[in-house]
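REQUEST FORM: STRUCTURE PREDICTION
Request ID: SP-0412
Submitted by: Lab K.M.
Chain count: 1
Length (residues): 191
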Amino acid sequence: ISGPRQQDLIGKLSIRPGQKLPPSGLARDTLIASEADHVRDFLRAQGYWEATVRLELHDNGKVPAEINLLVRVELGPAYPLGPLKVTGATAVPTESIEDSFRHGDWHRVWMLPKPFRRSDFRQDMAALVDRYRKIGFPGVRIQEDFDPKTSVDSTAKNVHLGIDIKERRHIEVAFEGNRSRSSGALSESLT
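STATUS: Completed
RESULT:
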């Protein structure tokens, strides 16, 4: 039920129905290897770091040949977010920050952790920045140390990360003399 969908994998291929392929040889082999790399990169971005992809060409024996492309994918295990090291957080509890980055896979009854996806991680980072801004830290800066070469732990089958938070100055805003709009409405219009 969960995991990458077939149409998403097909969308990563640049080969389209009816497209002419290079003749058998180095050019075709290079094209097929490149296509497999595109699909593999997509699967890794979805949290399947051990995914293998094989593209097979089958002709129907007619002249001119019609070629069917078969994409064989073995996902391997999904790598969830592993240890998360948070530094510099004083205004928001570290446990609360860690919890906001961990997501369960609701497709599975057991609520297993979701595979680590960079897109989800970026959204979580943006939400954390918004959270800090709402509590009076408009200049907050958050840096992460994700590097596919060092963050992906193939032994533990997870992704470990570090987040460094620079809260900067805390600012409290008070509205005086306002009678036409609520303080909440004015707060939302602050940049």
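NOTES: The chain has a mean pLDDT of 87.
Reviewed by: T.R.
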